[in-house]
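Protein Record: Sequence and Backbone Structure Tokens
======================================================
Tokens: labelled as protein backbone structure tokens, with as many entries as the chain has residues.
Question of interest: how does this chain fold, as expressed in backbone structure tokens?

___
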Amino acid sequence: KKPSHLHTHTDNSLELRGKSQHIATKGSRDIAEHHSHPKEGAFNNNGSIKAHHRERLSTKESKTKAPKQEKVLSDSSMKRMNKENQDESNGESTSKMTRGKKGNRKGNVEETMELTSEEKAAELKRGELVETPQVRSILKDFYRKFRSKEKESLEIAADFAESCIQDDKFPKNVHWRIVLELADLAKRANNFTRARDMYHRVCTLQPFASQGWLERSKLEEECGKLLSCSEILNEGLTYCPYNENLRTRAIKHEERMAYEFKTGDLQRARELLAPLKHNSIDKVWRTVLEGALMEARAGREVVARRVLKYLMKWVSWYGPLYLEAFRLERDCDRPIQALEVVERGLKEIPRYGPLWFGAFRICEGLDIANQDLHLPRTLGMIDRAIKSISRELTWKVQMEAAQAQERAAHIAIAKNPSISLNEMLEATRTHFAKTIFSCPENLCWKVWLAAGRMELSAGRFNEARRLFLKSYSVVPTKGRPSVLLECVRLEEFVGNMKLAKAILCKTRSEAKADWKVWLQSVSLEVRSGNRQLAIKLAQKGLMEHSGTGRLWATLVQLREPDGAEQQMKALKKALRAVPKSGEVWCEAARMHLNPFSPCFNLETASNHLEFATKFTPQYGDSFLETLRQVMIQSIIESFTPIHVENMKSAMDACSEKQMVEVVATSIREAAITVEDAAIDIDAIIENLDSRDLELRCSNADPNYGKLWFHSRLRPSDTARTVLKRAKQVIWNDLGHYTHIYVAAAMRLEAANHITNCIGEDDKLESSTLILPQLIDLMNINGKGIDIKLLEGISKADFVTGFVDVNHEVDLQTLSLFDRRKILFGSDLLLTWKPLN
């Protein structure tokens, strides 16, 4: 009997195969027609999906009509391989059967020819992946001893692995697994040259094992060699064309390269997806899902929506698929469509929790938008969830109901102050009581904290203290610092600063390992006006937590009143400690965005913000500062060119002694002109296209940041909604302070012009120090004009992108709701988080 891969069939099976090939060829021809334009990619239109579906049906039909062919496949040598490679070979067989040979008998006869020597060698090498029970036992013993040696030292583990390779007890077909461990040891020892050689050896010994290609590509990517990583992944796909992990990683890497090199061309990633249309959707749906998400991240929502709809039809049992489709509609500000996706998913998987919680937020947003503050849609969805969701999540559902009703009560009070808040919160208290009854014991402390916050917003301070004390009595040891920090906020809320500082002092002595304790200590002193003490606490905290970016960023911002030089020193020290902290890079950008800073530079700020959004995309303030930078840049490009040219001409015509005075005069004239052109500024900002930034922000889905929390009013607000609201705030600020930014930009141009004239070749920060600071320049022979231009303005107003947030505010003068938002609205303990 000949091997199955020779495709030896009887005449009857040949006839049936010819019929199935005719059907498959017709489907493939339809797919080719829809993919004739390379720029459209693997998911260009609905036709490709329908053609894929026809092809899938044709494959099923051929399997049904040719039972003898199915028997041959079942007796093939592929049955001896491990699961991963068996799936690949089955996919390859299905692909061959689907594509056919133009549907004629001649093509089938050619398939019965003997394999070449290279193909036979490949089949033998692929067969080496199959391990007998004896080999598995040997490898299990090796891994056990290897992990034990690894705990002693990396060198001992490496020597043990080398000795095992020389041992005849280990068959040659498993040497690649030992070499893979040696490569990992070299990588961890930072010996990248040896690691690179070892990984190359793994891929040579067993090219049909995807693990070697994956680890080898990761090494090149971590070393910054993106092109080498791409070549390795593509080479690996020639040996493992149907490996899901390898192809998915290749797609993600090509997507990354498109944005790293700022081309935005995803054609190569789409080419990696194109071959999947020849396979059954049961085998490739995960990779197709990754392709759909890639198209969504690229802003092609229509294509992504179409592919996700197709996948929901054929992979209806997979819950995260509905969650991704829900996120797509939610992020596009299509709540009705998002709710339809949720309903479709719950019909198939009624116990899938993330879909229920997503539905709660969508329904709450719809109820508030419709002014239904009794939340009929939300409470109806919650009642349905309690009947369907697993019992372990019932307490979370009840807590969602309590917090939703609390938010609705505060909205109602804001609209009608005559309503009693205490009465409005009765329903909230009822749901909190139900939450306690259904909550696991180790999580009850969070419910008591949430209930205490609710009582605090209602002005019932003693009730809040009792609930916080109850929370402290039941909290596990690990969670005690969080409860103590809540007590600190409570005492600061009521104005008892002495007790709040005493609790913080106790918490620092008992819980040094929690960086949030130090951050809260610094924030408390800042709000109290004790900047020097806040700096000392930040420095002490960094001695315990030198890798915490938020502490470093706070220290950099605290150094702002000490001058640009001291702030720059703190920044450089922070970047040496945490070079990949988005918070620190955002503070660096804020330094260059401050118009009164001598290092004001929009281009440098743009580069820093790019690092910030790349390293810490969940930090929302980086995106809001990017929005400010883009808006300022558009205004400056519209107003300054003419003024800059006039200034340079005047500088060339004057003497060195008159240079500073000429620059000061030019800056004042430009500032006055811009201040009188408020209508033109509004037109520029209104026509500003920020869709690319909105897409990036939506893909990142940030969840924290001082400015971010200030702009996010409700848990149902999407990233696009927050960004649009922040754009309005920045727009209002620029309407009052545009002339300051224009003056700073002209000072920078003057400094560069002086540097070029005198032939200095120094850093930009040094060249701007040639001229006096902006305030001093505007005071030179101003004749009272500078008083009008700088009235009520200080450098501290531009520390962050929101001028109002930068002002010091006495908490006791604010309303209970505003106080609660400042103290409790900027943490992640109980506030809304993105779905997982």
